[in-house]
Every structure is written in C-alpha cells, then in structure tokens.
Target: Bumetanide-sensitive sodium-(Potassium)-chloride cotransporter
Amino acid sequence: MENRFIVRRVEQDPAANQHQMTLVGGLTGPADPGPPHSAHDIFNSTSTTCLCEPADRRPSIVHLTKEALPRVDYYSNALEGMKRPSLGDLHGDDPCGKDVDLEQQHEAADLGGGHGIKLGWIQGVLIPCLLNIWGVMLFLRLAWVVAQSGIAQTLIIIAISAVVCVLTTLSMSAISTNGEVKGGGIYYIISRSLGPEFGASIGLVFAFANAVAASMNTIGFCNSLNDLLKSQGLQIVDGDVNDVRIVGVIALLVMVLICAVGMEWESKAQNFLIAIIMGAIVDFIAGTIVGPKTDDEKAKGFVGFDVEVLRNNWGPSYRFSENVDQTFFSVFAIFFPSVTGIQAGANISGDLKDPASAIPKGTLLALLLSMVSYAVFVVFAGGAALRDASGNVTELAGAAFSDCSGRHCDYGLMNSYSVMQLMSLWGPFIYAGCFAATLSTALTNLLSVPRIIQALGIDRIYPGLIFFSKGYGKSGEPYRGYVVTFLVSACFLLIAQLNVIAPLISNFYLASYALINFCTFHAALIKPLGWRPTFKYYNVWLSLVGFVLCVSIMFLIDWVTSLITFIIIFALYLIVVYRRPDVNWGSSTQAQTYKTALTTAYRLSNIGEHAKNYRPQLLVLSGKPSARPPLMGLANLITKHTALCVCGDLLPTRLSHKSRLARVRAGYKWLQSRKYKAFYTVMDGLSFEDGARAMLQSAGIGKLKPNVLLMGYKSDWRTCNTDDLVAYFNILHNAFDNRMAATILRLPDGLDYSKVTDDADVNTPIAASNGDLTVNSTVLRHDMAVRGEMLRVDSNLSFLTHHGGSDSTLHLKDSTQCLPTDSLTSGRRYNLQHDKTWNIGSPKTILKSKKKAVAEQILKDATGHDIPREILANMTLFDRKQKKGTIDVWWLYDDGGLTILLPYIVHMRSYWSHCKLRVFALANRGHELELEERNMANLLSKFRIDYSSLKMVTGITEKPKSETVNMLNSLLEGFRESDGAHEECRVTDTELATLHEKTNRQLRLREMLLENSQDAVLVVMSLPMPRKGTVSAPLYMAWLEMLSRDMPPFLFVRGNHTSVLTFYS
Model:
C-alpha cells in the first residue's frame, strides 16, 4: 500500500537495543533488550533496513472515503477493467445480487483487437496505405490511361479521385478520433457510427471488395511476370491466362501464409516492398529525364521530353479497347482502384498503438504522396512517349513509326502495358517495383479481410460468420478467415482479366466511401453528446458532398453494376434488421431515433384530438406481465403496433434499485419474447389505490398518455379484506375522475397464472396488483397430482391480507431479497443462451437445436412438467387463431362508441377474423321496435361497422326470476347491515331500495345473457356506471358478478363519453 511504510537505515549501535520499532497497523512497543550481544545477533552487518511508519505520515484521500477519483480504467469496456463504486454502494443500498448495470457494461465490452504486436502511424498506416495505393495500376495501367484520356483529363481523373479520397479521409478521421477504434476497420467505424444494419452490410461488401482486389493485384503481378518471361522467350503453359491462373493461385497461397504468420513478419515484408517500389519510381523518373538510349527505344515510342509530344498527348483519344468503347468514366472506373488504399490503416485499426492519431495522420500523408507521384507519372509519361509506335527501327527516318493508321502497332502508350519498363533507367527494376506494388497491395488486402470477417463473427451479426470469430495465438489471428479469403480471391483470380474486375471493385469501394461520408454527415448533423472527435478539420456539408459525389460517380461509371451493388447492400441490411442483433453501440442512428421521437412528441402535443384519429391507449394493471398472459394478450390485440400500451406493476413494499431494475428487465424480456409492443413500469412503496391513482395521473407524456384503463376482474371480492375491496372499487372512480375509459376482463378460469409461469415472487415483496395467490382447491387435472396440486388461480387482483372464505390462500412472505428475472418464456430463452451445449456444431445446427428445445419446453411449466392443454389454451386465448364463433356486443348505453369500437378492433385481427360480430341493443319502446332497429342499423352503417346480426332486446324492465334474485341475495350475505358488515363495505336497506330498479335491470340482463350469449367466444358489454356516493362497493361488485358469472370470456367497457367514432369524412 502506498504511503504506509518508509525505509529506514539502522546503524550498528548499542543504543539500537533501546529503539522502539513500529509494527504494521500502528502498534508500538519497546524492543526486547535481550542479552548484550543480541544486537549483533539481529544486525549481523554494518546496516540493515526495516519497515517503519513515517513520523509525518498522512493518509491519502483513497483511505478516507469510498469515493473514486477520476481515472481512465473506470470508462473502459474491458472485462478486466476496474469498476467505480456504484451509487448503491455509496448510498448504502442493500448489496444483494450483482449490479445489473455493471453486467450490462460487461456484456457490451468490445472484443475486437488482439494483444500482440502494436504498430505506430508510419508502420501501421502510412506504409500500408502507400503500398495499397501504389498498386497494379501504377506500373501496368497508368500509361494506358494517359493514352486514352490524355494528360489533361487524366489529371482531372486523378483530381476527382483525390477529392473523393480526401473528403472520405477527413470523414474517416473524424469518426476514428471520436473514441477508440477496435479491430474490424471500416466495418467497426460504420457499425459503431450508423449501427449494425449499415455497418454489417457495408462491412461484408467491403471485405468482399478487398478479397477481389487481392485477386486483381495478383493478376497484375502475373501479367507483369508473363511480360518478363516473354522478353526472355519463356512461358509456363501458354504464356497467357492459364499461366496467370497457375502462378496467381500459388502467389495467393504464399501471401496468405505470410499474413497468417503474424503482424511482425508482415511488417518486415512491407518495409522491404516499399523500398523496392520507391526505387522503381526513382528509376522511372531518372530514365525519363535521361531519355532514350537506343534507336530501338525510340522506335517503340520512347522519344524523350518534347513539346510536340506533350501537345499531341494533352487531349483525349478514346478508342475501342478491352472489348469496350472507352469513355471518360470507363477509364475512370479502371483507374479508381489505384487510389482505394486509404482504408488500409483503418482495416487493421485493432493492431495500432493509437488509432485515433495514426489513422488521420498516416492516411492524409499517404494520399498526398501518392497523388503527387501519380501526377508526376502522368506528365512524364505523356510528355516523353508516343501513343502509338510500330517498333520498326527502319521507319525512324521518316517518322512513319508513329503512324499506325491502317495497321496494328504493338508499342506506345496505347498498345503496350510495359512502356514504363522501356522508359526507365534500368528496366528490370521496374519489373521488381511492379512485383512489389502488386504483391504488397494484395498482401494488405489479404490481411484486412479476415479481420473484418472475424469482427463480424464476434459481433454475431450474421449467423454464418460466427464460425470465423475464433482467434488463435496471443494476438487472436483469424486463421479461419484466411482460408475463406483465399478461396474467394482464388475464384476471381481464375477470371484472369484485369479490366473486367476493376470496375466491379470501384463500385464496391465507392459504396463504402459513400457510407463513411454519410456516417460523418449524419453524426455531425444530429450532434449527439458523444460526438466529440479530436480531429477538427472536417465539415458536415463536405461529408455530404463526398457522399453525393461517390454515389454519382458509381452510377456514371455503370448504373447496372451500381444498382446491383445497392441491392446487395440493401439485402444484407434487411437481414440484420430482421435478425435484430442485441447490440448497443451508441450509434448516431440511435441518437436520430431519440431526436425524432422527441420532436414528434412535441409536435403531437400541439395537435388537437379528432375522432377519426382516435386510438385506444391502454394502461393495463397487469402486475408482472408474465403473471397474466390473457390480460396482456387482449391488450396486445387492441393496441397491436398502432397504439400505446403501458403495463403497470404496483407493489406496496419498497424495492431496492437493483431489484426494481431486475423486475423491469424480466418484464421487458417477457414482452419481447411474445413480440408485444408495450411499456412496462413499476411503482413501489405505495398502497394499491394510491399507486393506481398516481399511475393514472402520471403515465405517459403529452398526447402519448393512456386513455383507457384495463384491469382484471376481482373474483375474490367476497372473501378479501374490506380495504382491498374498497381500493379496487375506488380505482374505477379514479379512472372516471381523470376522464379515462375503464374496461374489466373476466375469464372463467381467472387471469393469474403466476404459479404456472414461476412468477409468484416467493422470495420477493408482492405487488398489490399481484396479490396473494388465492387459489381454488379444485385440482385442474388428475395427472397434475404427480407433481403436487396445480391449483386454479381465480384471483385477478387481490392483496396481501385475506380473511374468511372457504378458498385456500397461499400467503407469501415479505422479503427484500433480489428478484428472480425468469418467467415462462424469458427464462427458457435465458437458459438456452447460457447453455454451452448450444454452441456445439454449425450455426444451422445450433439454430435447429434451439428451435427444437423451445418447441419442447413451451408446453412445460417452471418445474419442467407439462402444462395441461386447457390451462395453456386459457393463457393463450387472445394469441391463437379462433375457430368460427361470435363476438357478442351488448351496446346498452352510448359512451362515445368505445363499447362497439373495441370488439370491432378485436374482430379485425387475423386470429379473430373468423368470428362474427353480433350486436345487441336495448329497445326504448316495445311498440317501436322495428323503427329503433332501423335507426341502430343506420348508425352502425354510418360508422362502417361490419356486423353479422343486430337484435333489439326488450323486457329489461320486467321483474327478474326468483332464482336470480336469490342468487343476488346470496352474494350480498355478509355485507348487509344485519350481518354487521364494515361501514365502508355495507349494503344498507336504503341503498337497496334506492337502486332497486337499477339492480333489477342487471338481473334481467343476466337472464338475457344466459339466453343469448352463453355460447359466444367473447362477450363485450357496457360497464354499469358506479355513481359516487350512491352505490357501495359490494353491491356494485355483485352487479358485475351477476352479469359475468358462468359466462364466456367477458369484457366490461365504459368509455369516457367522448366520441371515438364519426361518420364524417
């Protein structure tokens, strides 16, 4: 520990026996005097050292507080990096469990980049860029470009290429200096800036382009080798394409092996190659200055610097060449791959010591040197050599050697690809430079492709590339990637035609550069707080110009190839969008999503509401979503992809931050596994009524606020605590006080399946919305006895205390332990992801195994036993296709149209589209039944509601049957004054007398429901209005019980009496 001890020299002195030694921990005491000679026994030399506490020692700040001082380790994504104390540690929260935030940071840690040799900006960026730019075109095609386009237009081609590359380099420098750049190069830059969709698609295309570029440069090497062999009268097979194929495959294999050996050997090879190339450049310049040395050189077109030659070669002379009528842009397409080496440093960004500094510095300098060298080559070649020459020395006297009209000439800038060897001071050195340039460019391409593929595999973007994520050795060499790179390059090498491959590569590179420019433009335009590049010499509009310029050149070169390129990129983009990889890289696309959502929310708040644009936005009191699958299924059916849905989870006890976060994550995990579009919020530390009131008032923002309350029916209202019953009843009043619509769902077998889905929260505080598991003592299936009683859960909304009643109740203990995060679906998914056995085999085998496991486990409960089919059917009632049946709508009272709108929405869903809509309405006067039916039919027609039948019911005011009245009386037992009921849950005789007629209507409605709708698939009915101060909670719940008992799935609906339907256009 620092500042704990100092080193003190103890001299050999008799007084040393009296020295007080300081012990570790601050304890002091006299030394043992011992015998007189003890000092010599202890200190057997002239001096020794011991650990002593300094007299003026002061504790450092780290020993006085738990607070952490700022340091770089706290901001690193490395798994082994230090972590600062959490807010909970400093605040004194319950330390149970792991911090979920830290776990998420661990999961987000980037795995790119090895730990082997790290390169500086010269060795890692400048030299690779120069080697990549000084490629095959420099020695084999630049003279041909000058012959076709002339000096002026060739300089324009170089200038346009330079502008594209400079703008792209500025954009790439801005992105690469906006934080650390890991392994993966262009893929890493684009994916972390624009997201995995763009990054993965363009990264794969770019890797493919580099692999093809390696084959193109290898073809150039083989062509040069063939020319050298021909000059000596030699050949391997035919001196043409077959020789190219044989030598090319061997050369590719050797270069792949060099790359696979490691960065150190590849770096040494680069130094040797760059020296040869620079020597060849000097050889060409010196030879051109010296001029032709023999008449044979003059006859072949090398005449030395001459004003007349410069004038003749200044303008273009496009001809039919390479089976194409050449134009400016066709020549540009062939030349452009020669300047596509600017990404060489970024491609190996994971192997750089400081990518943020090295990439802009090395790339810009390499671009400057290469463009200057190209311009010098163009002027020298165009000013000292003829376009056409016969090579016949005897024609020199009359200058006929340069007139090739009517005959074919084999020499000159237009006809000979080896004219630079002719113009050099020593021809063989040009061959060496050509070999070095082509092989070095191929080497850098072969080096970058496997690392891009490895980065894609590590990020698990495409399943087929996961196999290539494995690294070998201390630097994580991607040997598997080298194999596939060799195979792809070898396939294109077999084409053996340089000018056929070049335009294809140009399109892929231009597409990559366009995306790089767009990345910078997008990030600089959105300006997220994380956009702080240290490279300041960029401009948002210049990046946009670079993007437009790249796309324009692509289509001017070849619109068909450009279209195919974008189709491929778009297809790869759609694959990533469909797979939805679970990554969070803080891309500018995410920032744009937030900014767009915020702007839209602000704009929406200023837009007035209209019935045509009405959407039912639900607040669902679901507790944990996985505990009540049918309730969430109905909510999803109503709001599916079109409206807001908020799941509210109310807990009376207070949760720690970690427990709350774990609960929320488990809820979202379940929603995502079911593909439900909903928000999930937890409110703890409040009673059920207070929490519901707070949620009704605060849920949502602006116009994105719930306008419909959806909750489950409280089936244990007769046996629960009176406070719980009153709280449940008051929620309806609170909803209506906030002018919200209210809906209540009841299923014959209840809604709460937390025992089945392992969401009973046995070790956690239970939300008031979850309640005790009030279960029916009836066993659902006989085969469930094998694993103990599986009890039917009837309580949809119940509470922590329970009194009376014959139902058995499972009382759960309060605890502050951390929450489990598993559920029926999410737990299975979690286990699958963490089971190592799934990683065995190919990605296709892994996918099949996962699907099979899901299919086997989806019918099992949390203990691994089979869920009875009837329970599973109830849980997935609203998530499965319904057979033919009816949805009966009892539109009794006009509430604005919500009672008819909700069943119509359900009917429009594909799973429920086979169910017919039947409408029942009350007749005001029996003798005008036909007229009222026509009026109702006309109203439904104006609303464009498609229904199968309409029935006007009469007799609502008739006296109910005696057995129906007796049933109501039995429900009210224990709540009457004579029973001594609690004052808040007491049904007085005065209340019964006052509401006698309304009560009779509810009883008559029950009789009509049993007569007409007992066989329906779903019944939707207007919810009776609980008038304040008039009806008590027990009497109101008795009304609902009478209406919905022994009925199919039942939905009560009461709108807020604002029109949600209109017949105006």
